[in-house]
Amino acid sequence: MKIVFFSDAYRPRVNGVVSSMDEFAKKLQKRGHEVLIVCPSYPELDELGLEEPIPTLRIPSLPAVVSSEDRVAQLWYEPEVFRQLDAFSPDVVHVQTEFSIGTMGRRYCKKRGYPVISTCHTHWEMYISNYLHFLPPRFNQYIARTLMRKVYNNDTLVIVPSRQIEAVLRRYGVEREMVWIPNGIDNSFFYPQPDGANKLRYDLAEKYPALAEGPILLFVGRLGHEKNVRLLLEAFMRVHKEIPNANLVFVGNGPVLGELKSRTHEAGLDPFVHFTGYVHRNELPLYYAMATIFTFPSVTETQGLVTIEAMLCGTPVVGVNRMGTAEVMAGEKGGLLAENSASSVAEKILKLLKDPELLKQKKQEALVQGNLWTIENSCTILENLYRRFTL
Question: How many CB atoms neighbour CB 362 within 10 A?
Fold first, then answer.
């Protein structure tokens, strides 16, 4: 099959939508399908010299007014995009987002007679105030609910990565057919690598000496308000009082990086809290394997791909008992679930760190639980769905 993904975000942007598309696209290619991703151009792409692992059709774009990290496609290029897509002659079109390029994908489907298959990746009611912070929260909620209801009620079929997102869409009044397909992770890429992890720790300790000893707590993701990272830093402050050689490593970047660094400095924890910035994806399995505990406080995840990645690397998780994290961990399998407070997160972290047998048990559980969410299983479901709608 020839498959087109439409998305308002792609490399070098780092988020769950991009990770999901990459995993599915790579697996679909290995199974003999052709995949083309329609996505925005990014000015830094040439500067970074990144290779395109999946064929892309980049649409010239402008900065998004509400987010410096995001782009808005210049829609007057639409006729040329449609011409190139007609030449590609797709069998299936899969729309991954709701905005400029997502809208373009839906228009292409309707003009060319394709069914609109979409995935709802983002719980916008939980995120929108980070972009429209100048508007009252209740008005933002109304905008998010109205947007999602109107967008998805006009699609042919909606894929949801978690049961909880399906429930959210139903509550909004979305009546279209929905299919649950988890965003699978490649367990041939994410797996325990103790030797590589030890070397990484040794190398990092040259820059961050405190990493030479003591437990390591790890966060991987965008450093934004929606990821609840301030709560994690507050929790670590409590942990550090009881375990003075504990370390916290933030992998990623984002708008609250400066705030986190300032708060760390004020607390006198500069030697023990480390900010690596973006890390190449090829290195991520080593970071997960190096960590004693993966700490993920986000309450907005539709699924929580990083949670699965960490578990596949044999690293137990302490997460907040909400949304996708709770669904993936299915009752504290592979870690512990906390309430949405610094004290509760700290309590769960300390419980694992102070009980070596429990920590060992949760590491073993993490491997088993992570392997329930592999890309192999999810891709088979997606393939069968595509065949059902192939023109």
Answer: 23
